[in-house]
Amino acid sequence: MAINKTNAARLLETAGIHFELIPYEVDESNLSVDHVAEQLGEPIERVFKTLVLRGDRGGLFVCVMPGDMEVDLKVAARISGNKSCAMIHMKELLPETGYIRGGCSPIGMKKPLPTFIYESALLYDYIYVSAGVRGLQLKIAPEDLIRFVGAEIYPL
Hints:
By secondary structure, this protein is α/β, with parallel strands linked by helices. It has one domain: YbaK/aminoacyl-tRNA synthetase-associated domain (YbaK protein).
């Protein structure tokens, strides 16, 4: 099966960063990270989701976290220098990032956003994040991802 390279993959390639593109079967009725992990045959802790939030002071920012965790809005606000924050509305995702739900990558958004990656990523030699489309994941070393997007590590 031919895999079309995504913008995120092209950006990593241009930067000389090693990664793999891993396709999976999309279920439009179940875009959950549990389904993605199951399709990849990987533990959910290794499959990271990309969440876009809006802070009351600093505007948009990104949290990249393991699939089995929920974002703690108080922690997210604190690490991003905000007093409070909330997930952006689904209708804002495409115009703000260039990505759709189930295909939002921390790499290659319309404009660079402050990005925070949960510390457990460093426990693994590789993690998965969306390649920028539904049905395709990037398998990448967490240190490479952190360096490439200029992310900060955060604990809960």
